[in-house]
Amino acid sequence: MKKLFQIILAVAIIALIYVIYVQISTPIKFEADTKAKKAQVIDRLQDIRTAQRAFKTKYQRFTASFDTLESFVLNDTLELERKIVDEDDSVAMAMLKKSGRKNVEKFKIAVIDTIFAPKKLSREDVLNFRYIPGTDNKAQFIMEAGIITTESKVVIPVVECRAPYKMFLDTVAYRQEVINLIDDEENNYNRYAGLKFGSMDAGNNEAGNWE
């Protein structure tokens, strides 16, 4: 009887130790997992934002379509300018001035070859813009674009691209932690419970909420 009691006590102690370990380790694991996943999502949001800004430079608006944005990056060009001669070369500058030409020439370059530099994106990277990293291409970013008029009657194009936490965090292994995080962001800090850049309500220079 005494031996049985000792075995039960030992099992209870082990179970208690395990419960304490889980309670301590789960928040630590959740924080590390969340940090890693957020880094991946932010990286893609930054690429999408870069593409949107280039699109606006050429077309004076943003787009709400990933098909349009991806086609722009893969198939379109941008017109850039460069100096014809070195402005410190007085002889060359004199000859250029004599010819009546300005020291600038325009040239076109493929969008994908310039806007992400020094980073290089593959065709596959671009075609994956719409998918939130870490979701096996099952969850997509929510992207909106439009035009708003400010209080000073200035008409400006706006864009917003977002990924809710519940779409890319592990809601199975960390169900309660995700619930707590979302509740904290929405009710205690009055912030968007996820990652996003831009705003459909006001021009904010496409700022990211992680910045």
Describe the structure in your own words.
The chain is α+β, with helices and mostly antiparallel strands and 211 residues long. Helix content is 47%, strand content 17%. The protein has helices at 2-59, 66-75, 90-98, 123-127, 165-168, 175-188, and strands at 77-82, 105-110, 142-149, 155-164, 194-198. Strands 3-4-5 form a three-stranded antiparallel sheet. A two-stranded antiparallel ribbon has the order 1-2. Helix 1 packs across helix 2. The longest helix is centred in the first third of the chain and has 58 residues, at 2-59. It is elongated. The protein starts with a helix and ends in a 13-residue tail after the last strand. The relative contact order is 0.14. The mean pLDDT is 87.
Descriptive keywords:
about 210 residues; alpha+beta; three-stranded antiparallel β-sheet; two-stranded antiparallel ribbon; elongated
Q: What is this structure, in a nutshell?
A:
The protein has helices spanning 2-59, 66-75, 90-98, 123-127, 165-168, 175-188, and strands at 77-82, 105-110, 142-149, 155-164, 194-198.
